[in-house]
Structure formats: structure tokens, C-alpha cells
Amino acid sequence: MALKFFSLRHLVRIPINSVNNQTPLYQNNITHNLTNFSTSSIACVTFFNKLPAEKLWKSVTSVSNAGAKKGRGKGAGRIRIRDLNRGQVIGVGKINMLWPGLSAPVIRGRELLKQHRLPDDPERMEKLIKLRDSMTKFRRFKLSPIERGWSGAKMPGRSIGPPDPVGDEEFIGFDTKVLQLRSLLIMKGTLGRTRNYQAMVVTGNGNGLAGFGFGRAKEALAALRKAKNRAGKKLMHFDIYNGHTIFHDFFTAFGKTKIFVQKKNEGYGLRCHRAIKEICQAIGIKDMWAKVEGSGQLQHVVKAFFIGLLQQRTHQQLAEEKKLHLVEYKAENAYYPTVVASPSVVRTKEEIPRDETLDFVQYVMNDKVMLRRKKFPRFYQTMPHYDIYLKKFERYRNHEKIRHNLKTEYGTVKSFLNDKYPEAKSEQEA
């Protein structure tokens, strides 16, 4: 701010030569020596008007990088900036005046308003102090257990509503879940260290439509809004088998991340990575099992799972690829074979190569084998009395149901000691 005096001709309505002669300005005995006045500009710059209010409050409420490394200012985030303009009314100060053109209209009807003093408000300062104190009090925002994310009140895992409408189209029935929200520090030569926020979300209607998106902005809310709207513009449709699970097991990978997904019966639930669980809920998949191997980077997990969902095929497509019947065995149907899909042209036994993969699980898994832990026997299975227990129940092997289960699982009726002492095969079986 700079102040500048007006020229002397605007202040004194007398010739300038009278000033040089130091003649009295008025008829009384008071004389003024105007030769000491200067017409140069005066810069009134102080610490308080040089920096904006945001910088001043930051110097009080924040801590330096060196202090933060030493553990200082851990509660500085709870101190909020006071907005001293809040509660103030233009034209109304300590003296309650009515100023036409500022706090009141100049003309009201046909009446020309004049400035006049209004009755004083003795509680004005008390109200301002109470209002300013309420701004600095830290109130922790409480969430219900249903609205919480993966880790307390943080954003990952929380719902942020459907995407914004695009033109006349609205996203009815959609819900968006935050998968990741992280801050990025970027060092620039001109601006120094700048902070950005990156968000990754997934949105879906629970009926086969879903999509994911990324957003980056200076503020966290802006990044979430960008990611949500981008996810709404990149929707993908996925078929759901019987309305609750996937069509078949599959293997998918992205980068160093590998995911093995298995189809499960109704009522099994979702037993998988938490990000995969949110994606399944957005799509409408209710029963599934998944295992993540390799890198657990969240973005790679999400991309790999979406790639696997897009690559899965229906039963009819699998039958047409192999040109064979697709048969399903279920325990609730007593393992009775049920033809699920049949191709238009079926290959004969002579047309099938000897090295072709005919096992359904290995075919849909692309011949990938899941890493499983070695199963060690129970502590009681190594004791002598366990063999006595098995010998007592050996007679039940001849029951029809037991024989049927053994033939289904092993292909033939086997002894309980077959794993320890394999039975010799005859020449006809070999």
C-alpha cells in the first residue's frame, strides 16, 4: 500500500507565491509553514500487509520440515485457521452506522436516505469472540461402522456416491467406492516441493456394469471427483453366471501380480483381497475365491482382476473352442454328469491329439498351477492308535455310498493304506 499527498493547489485555494512568502493562510493569527511538506510517495509496507492472511495463519498453525522430522507439531493439524471476516458486516463496526450506498440503498422509494447512527449492540464483540472460538475447536468427525473404510475414518473403502450426470444421463443405482487415496510430493525447480493427491475408485450398479478410474488434483476432494467421473465414463459389462458368481476359474496377471480365481457355489461369499471384494460388489458377484501372488501393488491388482473378468468365456464359447461337450459334476446331484454346453461340431476320439489338455481346470487356468502349502498330517495320525481306529472302520468301505465316493474321487475302490503302501497294478490295468 502506498500513500501520496495531493498537490498543494487542491489543499489551499491561494496563489502559490503566497506560500513562498509565508503569508498567513487565514485571517486569524495561526500561520502554517508548508515548505516542510513533501509530494513524494510513502510506502507503508509492514509484515502484516506484505503477506496474505493464508501465509500468516500458516506460520502460526504449521511446523517446519526440520521440526516435523524431530516429531514436533504432531497436533498442528487440529489447529484450524480463523476466518476473521466471518460474522463481520460491511459498514457496521464498533459504531453502528447506516451508510447509504454501503450498508443501505441510496434511495428507498422516493426518499433519499441519509447516514444516521443506529442503536448500539453491546453483545457484538461477545458474538464475534464466540464465533471465532467455535472455528478453532477441533471436532472429530464420527462415522457409523457401516460407513467406515478399511482403516477407520480414512477414505479407502468408503462410499462417495454415484458419478455426476453427463448431460441428461444420470447414474441411477450406481455407487462408488474409494480404493486408494495417496498424496504425491513432486519437486519442481520453480515451485519447489508441491503436493498432489491421486485417487483410484471403482463404480458399479451391482448388475454387471462397473468401471474404475484415476484422478489427480491439488485437493483430495477434487481428485476423488475426477476419478469418480472418469470411472463413470469407462463402464464395462460383465456376464454373471446364475446371478451370483463367475462362469469358470481363471488365471490373470498384470506386471508382477498374479491372481488365481475360483468359482464357488451360492452362499460361499467373497473370500479374496479387499480391493477385489469391492470390485465384485460393484459388479454384482456374490460368491468367489481369489488368491493374489507376487506383487501386491493395488493398481496392478485392480487392473489384473478386470483383465481376467474380460477374458472369461461362457460355457458355450468354451465348448465351441474345444469342439467337445462341456459336462458338469455336482455333489448335490450325486455327481451325476450334466451336459452344460454342446458345440455345433463334435470331434471324435481319433481327432483329439494325445498332448491336448482335456482337464477343464487346467485349460481355463492356462496350465498355471497355484502355489499351495504342503499339508502335514495331524498329530494324531502318526500315533499307533490311529491305525487301530482305521482298521475298526475298514468294514464300512463296502457300503454302497462309500464305494461310490471312492470311485468318484480316486476312480476305484482303494484301501486306507493306499497312500502309504500303493497297491500293485495288474497287467490288464497297466
UniProtKB/TrEMBL annotation:
Lineage: Eukaryota, Metazoa, Ecdysozoa, Arthropoda, Hexapoda
Main location: mitochondrion
SUPFAM superfamilies (alphabetical): dsRNA-binding domain-like (SSF54768), Ribosomal protein S5 domain 2-like (SSF54211)
InterPro entries: Ribosomal_Su5_D2-typ_SF, Ribosomal_uS5, Ribosomal_uS5_C, Ribosomal_uS5_N, Ribosomal_uS5_N_CS, Ribosomal_uS5m_N, Ribsml_uS5_D2-typ_fold_subgr
Localization annotation: Mitochondrion
Organism expressing this protein natively: Iphiclides podalirius (scarce swallowtail)
Domain (S5 DRBM): residue spans on this chain: 192-238
PANTHER family: MITOCHONDRIAL RIBOSOMAL PROTEIN S5
Protein name per the record: Small ribosomal subunit protein uS5m
Family of the protein in this entry: Belongs to the universal ribosomal protein uS5 family.
Annotated keywords: Mitochondrion, Ribonucleoprotein, Ribosomal protein
UniProt key word Ribosomal protein: yes
Domain of life: Eukaryota
